[in-house]
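Late entry, written up from scratch paper. The run itself happened at the end of the previous shift, but nothing got recorded in the book at the time, so transcribing now.
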Amino acid sequence: MSGRHRRPLTGVSLDAQVSRWGRPSRMIKSIQYGTVTIGTGGGPLTATATIAAVVAANAVVHWFGESVEVAGVGTHGLNESLSSVVITNPTTVTAQWGVNGGSNYATVEFMVVEYDPHVVKSNQAFSVAITNTNASATATITAVNLAESIIAFGGFYTEGTVPLNAFATLKQTNATTVTGTRVGTSGALTLNGAVLELAA
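Output as recorded:
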């Protein structure tokens, strides 16, 4: 036999991570996919979808995009196309877009993930509101450990009609701050989400 000795791998192993949070099946309590349509019945800015009850403190919603339907003749700007979703109570997800779409409408896709309580140290919803004439804005949260935190992206809506005003990046810039940044400075833009800090 060879005289070589096998050295154990250094670093954090998968088994260590599993031991830390429990088996994968215990990390997540439920996953729900859904849709909500904005704009039917005269183009309201918001619409809701009903989900099976979750514990809001342990749940986050992920925006999965949307499809847009243009009714009749005319244009459909980005301000009538981009949307956001938030959990507004244990059984409701609310979607919103930037301006009244008239007879146009959008179907928004989302996923709600409810984690087991032992996985979640904190769950903080936030809204970053970039006002007209500004290129960036921040939301302040209670301090979290950046190495243990993730952002659940809830989408964004805008009054901007062209890409440099209507699109923005979103990131956690420090333990207490989430920042949204765009290139342009015209039209209000709101980004929603939640910072989920995992238990150590």
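The first strand starts at residue 28 and ends at 38.
(Scratch paper discarded after transcription.)
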